Structure to design on (352 residues):
């Protein structure tokens, strides 16, 4: 005869509540939301949709679960999505786990294959962009790189693109997956075709860590001055960011110091602003997209060995020569004063 199992001995069930916070990247707002839960003792993933910003998965046994956001946007609009995360329901009690997942913002990173440039040399710039989640129809509508080079740098005409998914690399073909246009040898634009967007969407639906890399060659002008800097910023136009609009995904400001022909970086003297003490001319302001002058920046002095916390301060050694000199001067002053007093008393005595 089977005995009933006490309630305390039964496995407690828990729940996972997911609340998505709004960001400035969401053109229509933070809701509706749609999340997929997998793992634990689930045999198939469970999907929940909500017109608000919150969903709740209930009746979950203890275990570790994976949370993934699914698309709710349709069309050419921007929407920040949540990076896949995990949530654990512990054993022993009924737990209601609430998660505030961190959004995965669109980002663009600018880099170069050199750490400094010399006048007349060639080098390569690289733009690494994240890829947004495709819309409810599994589509991406736009992906455009654009870079306006600073004065003193021109294009050499060679470029390439590839997808990077973890350790895997997928090469892309110019003319098939993307088209490159240039203007005045200083502005380069890479626009992805329909075939390229379909490939991006397919990879992004399965992998949240897709990076699109675009690399192009440039040449530094022979007129660049050693000690100056080359500053550059790239732009990305994905879904929700029209090319002719005011907004874009902006890269970091990339800085390359200019060395002289010997490879040395000699800082240009700091110009004195007009109107200040000792000024007789105008100053040059170094701005993004220009080649200008830069002051020498001296690193802060740091001790060779760190001082132990709480150790007493050591008194500085005294200079014996300085001490001796001070003593001699004091004795001379005292002798002079005593001589004046003695002479004064002697003269008064004679008068008396």
């Amino acid at each position: 005869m089977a005995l009933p199992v006490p309630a305390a001995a039964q496995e407690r069930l828990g729940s996972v509540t997911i609340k998505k916070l709004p960001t400035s990247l969401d053109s229509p707002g933070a809701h509706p939301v749609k999340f997929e839960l997998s793992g634990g003792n689930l045999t198939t993933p469970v999907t929940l949709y909500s017109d608000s910003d919150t969903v709740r998965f209930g009746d979950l046994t203890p275990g570790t679960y994976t949370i993934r956001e699914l698309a709710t946007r349709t069309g050419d609009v921007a929407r920040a999505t949540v990076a896949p995360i995990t949530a654990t329901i512990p054993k022993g009690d009924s737990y209601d786990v609430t998660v505030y997942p961190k959004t995965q913002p669109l980002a663009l990173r600018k880099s170069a294959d050199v750490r400094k440039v010399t006048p007349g040399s060639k080098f390569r710039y690289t733009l690494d962009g994240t890829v947004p989640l495709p819309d409810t129809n599994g589509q991406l509508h736009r992906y455009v790189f654009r870079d306006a080079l600073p004065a003193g740098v021109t294009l050499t005409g060679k470029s390439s693109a590839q997808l990077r998914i973890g350790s895997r690399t997928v090469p892309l073909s110019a003319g098939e997956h993307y088209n490159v246009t240039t203007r005045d040898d200083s502005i380069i634009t890479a626009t992805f075709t329909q075939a390229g967007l379909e490939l991006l969407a397919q990879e992004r639906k399965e992998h949240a860590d897709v990076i699109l890399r675009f690399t192009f060659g440039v040449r530094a002008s022979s007129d660049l001055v050693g000690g100056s800097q080359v500053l550059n910023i790239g732009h990305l136009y994905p879904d929700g960011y029209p090319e002719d609009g005011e907004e874009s995904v902006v890269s970091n400001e990339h800085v390359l110091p200019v060395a002289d022909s010997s490879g040395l970086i000699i800082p240009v003297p700091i110009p004195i602003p007009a109107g200040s003490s000792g000024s007789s001319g105008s100053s040059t302001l170094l701005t993004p997209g220009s080649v200008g002058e830069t002051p020498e920046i001296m690193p802060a002095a740091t001790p060779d060995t760190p001082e132990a916390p709480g150790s007493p301060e050591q008194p500085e050694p005294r200079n014996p020569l300085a001490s001796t000199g001070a003593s001699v001067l004091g004795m001379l002053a005292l002798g002079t004063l005593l001589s004046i007093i003695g002479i004064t008393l002697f003269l008064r005595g004679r008068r008396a």
Q: What stands out?
A: Helices lie at 194-206, 320-351. The radius of gyration is 35 Å. Residues 329 and 335 are 10 Å apart (CA to CA).
